[in-house]
Write a structure and sequence with these properties.
With about 600 residues, the protein is an alpha+beta fold. About 60% of the residues lie in helices and about 5% in strands. The chain has 29 helices and 11 strands.
């Protein structure tokens, strides 16, 4: 009999430890008496949430202030930002003196209790002994992947992605353990249906259901049950509920990048395929019918799935240069090598591929239905994790839980007393995550977790003042687009939304403008009102530390327009210098400058 009080105590202790590490992001989240978003995308989330909760613009799914002049659909669906905004608005009614960003910055920290609790539910469904539950939850708390998602100020939606990964694993385990249980079927279907409202890519959570069902169907182990109607009805009903609240759906869009008819169609296909397997006996004819039906249903999805494949493969412009789209194996070639990989993933990453192979083999053996489902999930999650860093929420739980599932029966036979065994494995867990612990503890992170943003942050105050009096288009690096929108009422040409063809087009337009001379910009881009100049690679990291870059290195790393606006002495008179930042007394030029262009119809 499992001690319920012990489980609660372990959950609270592990959550407390994870919160301790999440609060190590405080230097990045709190600067000059104000809370800040942490991470580039968190700045846009924060702006959208604040506009919905306390701003004049309210909640929007199309943003006319980005990718101007056309504006752009926001590829993040409505649910996360809208729900956080409603919670913030309600909280401010009770605590009107509270700083709104203080609330937002701590949402991911508090959410640790939720994700830790769902993981505890998964472990309970797998019927692990109490000591192994403690080891798994401890490892989850120590994992740098957990800390990166829940760090203070990390308002990005990925910690809720992890919630739906864990929730579908848990409810799926309960459903496959008893396919007559209507409540498990209802909650599993609802979780699958709601998930895409928090991230459009979460329709992929339907894959383990289909694969596990197919394996059991081929083995003739799929129990025919009326509860499958409950599952698929709840799934379709939840999907319909969330897509009808999506403006792209009401705009009759059908694409992977927005919550649209694509997601309702995918849900209908999954429901149809699942029902077919549960209602047909497995014969050669029925398998052939099933395969042909699935292929026909896939035809309308080809264009959208092609775009999704490019997204997952980082084939879109600039995506391949982002650190978050690199796999662990690719990261080892970057500065820092394996040390950086271990700091980001912990030592268990070295077991990822062996775990994947082991669970793949296990899924094909004669094991119970819930174990087939869990094994399929482990293969799926680890494949996603090893593909790109940004996909780690799909597989991070496998790194901490998978080894215990594979080794538990052998570990329990060791001639060691239970208390001593627990102490040994707790110690081993701490050792496994030592590189990431050392990398995280008491580190003074730069504001916003971005050294460039931290160095140029003062300039955003001047931009905010200028835009409040005379708003317009700001020309800035795409990396600075979300920062400009968070701090000011001005619009931007491009930002770090790089998913659709329009996004690629706007980035190309930005590259063309940055390659111009200051004079050409006035003549050919009269829509630009402000230029936010920031030098890339002002400092360079080396093995021996950080050194100042040379003028030649700066010229190699920066665009023509920004170089001219920093180094030239004969800048056209239409460029009014509003503010600048001199970071290094030994260097005579500014790190960053803010210009306002006036008299746009007048030649220099």
């Amino acid at each position: 009999m499992i001690d319920r009080a012990g489980i609660v105590l372990i959950w609270l202790a592990a959550s407390g430890l994870a919160i301790f590490f999440a609060l190590q992001f405080h230097p990045a989240a709190f600067s000059d008496g104000q809370y800040l978003p942490v991470g580039n995308d968190s700045f846009y989330h924060a702006r959208r949430i604040l506009d919905a909760a306390i701003g004049e613009r309210g909640f929007y799914q199309f943003d006319s202030m980005i990718h101007v002049p056309e504006g752009s659909w926001i590829t993040w669906p409505w649910a996360y930002d809208w729900l956080v905004a409603q919670t913030l608005a309600a909280t401010l009614m009770l605590l009107p003196q509270m700083q709104p960003m203080a609330f937002l910055a701590n949402v991911p920290v508090v959410w640790i209790f939720v994700n830790m609790g769902i993981l505890a539910g998964i472990i309970g469904s797998l019927k692990l002994q109490l000591e192994w539950r403690a080891v798994v939850l401890l490892a989850f708390a120590l994992s740098p992947l957990t800390q990166l998602l829940h760090g203070q100020g990390v308002i990005d939606h990925h910690f809720v992605e992890l919630t739906f990964v864990l929730l579908t694993v848990w409810r799926g385990l309960l459903f496959f353990a008893d396919t007559t249980d209507r409540f498990s079927a209802l909650t599993y279907g609802a979780a699958l249906g709601i998930a895409p409202a928090f991230h459009t890519s979460l329709f992929i959570l339907q894959v383990p259901l289909l694969v596990a069902s197919f394996i059991l169907w081929i083995r003739s182990d799929l129990n025919r049950t009326s509860a499958i109607s409950t599952l698929t009805s709840a799934f379709l009903g939840a999907t319909l509920l969330v897509v009808t609240a999506s403006e792209p759906f009401r705009d009759f869009q059908f694409q992977f990048g927005t919550l649209s008819w694509f997601h309702l169609y995918i849900a209908a296909c999954t429901a149809f395929a699942t029902n077919l397997m549960y209602r047909l006996r497995c014969t050669v004819a029925s398998v052939a019918t099933f395969v042909i039906a699935c292929l026909v249903l896939l035809v309308p999805l080809v264009p959208s799935l092609s775009a999704g494949t490019e997204y997952l493969g980082a084939e879109a412009i600039r995506l391949s240069t982002f650190a978050e789209v690199k796999s662990p194996l690719e990261m080892r070639l970057d500065p820092g090598g394996w040390g950086r990989v271990l700091a980001l993933y912990g030592l268990p990453i070295v077991a990822a591929i062996p775990l994947l192979i082991a669970f793949f083999w296990r899924s094909l053996t004669n094991i119970s239905a819930p174990q087939v489902y869990f094994s399929v999930w482990c293969v799926f999650g680890l494949t996603m994790l090893m593909t790109q860093f940004r996909l780690h929420p799909f597989g991070s739980f496998v790194l901490v839980l998978g080894p215990i599932i594979l080794l538990e029966r052998y570990l329990d036979r060791l001639p060691v007393k239970r208390g001593l065994s627990t102490l040994i494995w707790v110690t081993a867990t701490v050792v496994l995550y030592q590189p990431s612990i050392a990398n995280q503890l008491f580190i003074k992170h730069p504001a916003g977790l971005d050294a460039h943003y931290s160095a140029s942050r003062e300039l955003y105050n001047s931009l905010a003042d200028a835009c409040s009096e005379d708003s317009g288009l700001v020309l800035a690096y795409h990396d600075d687009g979300h920062y400009v929108r968070f701090h000011s009422d001005c619009s931007v040409l491009a930002n770090n939304f790089l998913l659709t063809q329009q996004h690629e087009q706007k980035y190309s337009e930005l590259e063309i403008l940055l390659a111009m001379s200051p004079t050409d910009l006035i003549d050919r881009a009269p829509q630009v009102k402000y230029v936010f100049v920031r030098l890339e690679n002002f400092y360079i990291s080396t093995v021996d530390g950080v050194r100042s870059s040379t003028d030649e290195e700066l010229r190699a790393f920066n665009d023509e327009l920004f170089l001219r606006l920093v180094f030239d002495t004969d800048i056209p008179q239409q460029y009014q210098l509003l503010d600048e930042l001199l970071l290094d007394d030994d260097r005579s030029f500014a790190y960053a400058r803010l210009f306002k262009i006036s008299n746009l119809d007048q030649a220099p």
